[in-house]
Amino acid sequence: MFTALGLTRMEGEGNERKFILSFSSEEPYDRWWGREILDHGPGAVDLSRLNDMGVLLFNHDRDVVIGKVIRAWVENYRGYAEVEFDTDEQSELIYQKVLNGTLKGVSVGYRIDSIEEVMAGKVSADGRFNGPAEIARKWWPYEISIVSVPADGTVGVGREAESTEPVSMEIFEAQLQINKNKFGGIRT
């Protein structure tokens, strides 16, 4: 699973390659099977793996490690992390593209341990979300990526958390066609 958010460069000597970024939110995301929401309420997000051994990847490619996660936390129903870019040639290339504004997307890879399904016209158990939706009530992020095409078009480098850029239905229709081609059609 992947989703996306935004990035801000840290200031001060010794922080030239460090950034604070938002890697997850409760922004609903329309997946091919339905709407998904990552709960950021108390106890919902297990950050232990990200804090113990988190890495910064490029486009979710586990073979393209471009940095490390220094620390991660949840604040105001959003996931945040302090990350640092590595200095090798491959990492430098991505770092420069972030600095000059070519790459603006941030995304997170995660695993869901518990889901609440909310039917159409109903409200979640805590009253915070309207259906239809699948709410990830217990989940854990395992990597953060700088991405060329983020899943969530409302977030990314240089964008504010409350930005609401509309996402075209053509994107969802194209993903549905990819899924049909890949899996030989949707089974019901």
Our count of helices gives: 3
Low-confidence stretches: 1-5, 155-168
User: How many structurally independent domains?
Assistant: 1
The amount of beta strand, in percent, is 35-45%
- Total beta strands: 10
Outline type: elongated
Largest sheet: 10 strands, mixed
The level of helicity is 10-25%
Report the span from N to C terminus: 22 Å
Average pLDDT, rounded to a whole number, is 80
Q: What value does the Rg take, in angstroms? A: 17 Å
Structural features, described:
This protein has one domain (2-28, 47-113, 139-183). Helices cover 17% and strands 41% of the residues. It has helices spanning 48-53, 89-99, 169-183; strands spanning 2-5, 7-9, 18-24, 29-31, 34-38, 55-58, 61-75, 78-85, 105-118, 133-147. Strands 1, 2, 3, 4, 5, 6, 7, 8, 9 and 10 form a ten-stranded mixed beta sheet that branches. The model is unreliable at 1-5 and 155-168 (pLDDT under 50).
In short, what is this structure?
This protein is of the alpha+beta class. The protein has three helices and ten strands; from the N terminus they run E-E-E-E-E-H-E-E-E-H-E-E-H. The longest helix is centred in the last third of the chain and has 15 residues, at 169-183.
What labels would you give this structure?
alpha+beta; 10-stranded mixed β-sheet; 3 helices; 17% helix; 41% strand; disordered N terminus
